[in-house]
Automatic annotation (TrEMBL):
Residues 374-395 have a biased composition (Low complexity). It comes from Neotamlana laminarinivorans. Transmembrane segments: none annotated. Residues 114-199 form the PSP1 C-terminal domain. This is PSP1 C-terminal domain-containing protein.
Length: 412
């Protein structure tokens, strides 16, 4: 159950002792913080009797607590399945479950609601753990069977039901696959009920996880739950270069983050005229070459003079287009382009005396090698200096007067 530091014993989490939500591994994958856990309900209010239960790879289901069990986050429970029972971990209780079900449009008054049977005992956990230990070896064999049958599909993961009566095979494929023969091989080899479920490439990336080009964990594996379609028009509206290597994520599809700021760009583009609209002037017809969404500027060039661009604002462009609709022409774009002042860039001086941040970007200058002649001159000058010092020492010794020797005889 969960990560290695939160292993279970008798159905109760241990390790970090944080009720199975340690924040280090898949314990809290796509979970919601229960900020209402320390608050009591008003008098007369009954607690919401639905519970959120998480299974492998972040899959979550909602169950009705008909037995009124006292459940808390991290409890392992036995839940109702279409055939048999399943084992999962409670991730959310109380009023926040009502909000999550409303957000996911799950009805609470349905008669086909699945129920929670009981808290899982040690026997249930042992059967569930043995079944999960078989999943990795089965996945290797299943992939080999798919290759032998030459099916264009990839078995991405296997999930056993809690009572080990059914195995769900998740696979990815670009086209429709006829896997009827594959199911017969699986049932004959693994001796269990088989269910095949196709997942998209985005769901596959969310299951594997990883680090994106922004340096953070993938959104699909941390908080993103609804995978909306992303088209190349989202990149065009944001004036991004249509480079598939930069716009594609680890799943091979366009990045989900292209939709995050798309609505803001669409609101800003409402004030811009269409790029295809040409401006009629007495000097000639002008065509839009470039737009700046943040500053609200547009660049136009006359037909035949494509190198000379004239910058005007969006208000001026709309004004000229309205005049053209009334069969009126302006003299030239230069009249409007002169009104757009260029913003002067302030160059701040280095008053603190710090080194430049680009000092390492400059290439190092090669050191000048000394000539051999200069080396010979230096050695000759050193030798001459030593000889002079020796001659001066000899002359000094000659000039010194000899000392008188004392006689050993006494006075006569």
């Amino acid at each position: 159950m969960a990560c290695t530091s939160c292993s279970t014993k008798d159905g109760q989490p241990k390790g970090c002792k944080n009720n199975g939500t340690c924040g280090t591994d898949s314990c809290n994958k796509l979970t919601v913080f229960d900020w209402l856990s320390n608050m009591s309900l008003p008098n007369g209010e009954e607690p919401f009797n639905w519970v959120e239960v998480r299974y492998k790879n972040g899959r979550k289901e909602y169950y009705l607590n008909t037995e009124n069990l006292t459940l808390s986050i991290g409890d392992i429970v036995a839940t109702q399945a279409k055939a048999g029972h399943d084992i999962g971990m409670v991730t959310l209780t109380g009023e926040l479950v009502r909000i999550q079900m409303k957000r996911k449009k799950i009805p609470t008054d349905t008669k086909e609601a699945l129920k929670i049977y009981r808290k899982a005992n040690q026997k249930d956990i042992d059967i569930w753990q043995k079944a999960r230990d078989r999943e990795e070896s089965m996945k290797v064999k299943a992939r080999q069977f798919a290759i032998d049958l030459r099916l264009q599909m990839k078995i991405s993961d296997i999930e056993f039901q809690g009572d080990a009566s059914k195995a769900t095979f998740y696979y990815t494929a670009e086209e429709r696959v006829d896997f009827r023969e594959l199911i017969k091989v699986f049932a004959r080899e693994f001796r269990t009920r088989i269910e095949m479920k196709q997942v998209g490439f985005r769901q596959e990336a969310a299951r594997l996880g990883g680090i994106g080009s922004c340096g953070r964990e993938l959104c699909c594996s941390t908080w993103l739950t609804d995978f909306r379609s992303v088209s190349t028009s989202a990149a065009r509206y944001q004036q991004l270069s249509l480079n598939p290597q930069k716009l594609a994520g680890q799943c091979g599809k366009l990045k989900c983050c292209l939709n995050y700021e798309l609505d803001t760009y669409l609101d800003a583009l409402k004030d811009f005229p269409k790029v295809e609209t040409k401006i009629q002037t007495e000097k000639g017809t002008a065509v839009c070459q470039k737009t700046d969404i943040f500053k609200g500027h547009m660049w136009y060039a006359y037909e035949g003079e494509w190198m000379n661009w004239h910058k005007i604002t969006t208000e001026q462009a709309n004004e000229i287009i309205e005049l053209n609709k009334k069969n009126k022409k302006i003299a030239s774009l230069e009249e409007y382009a002169n009104d757009v002042l260029e913003e002067t860039k302030t160059n701040f001086e280095n008053v603190v005396g710090q080194d430049s941040l680009t000092r390492f970007d400059n290439p190092k200058r090669p050191r000048k090698r000394k000539n051999n002649r200069s080396k010979q001159q230096n050695t000759q000058s050193k030798n001459n200096g030593n000889n002079r010092n020796r001659n001066t020492n000899k002359n000094n010794n000659k000039r010194r007067k000899p000392q008188r020797q004392k006689s050993n005889n006494g006075p006569k």
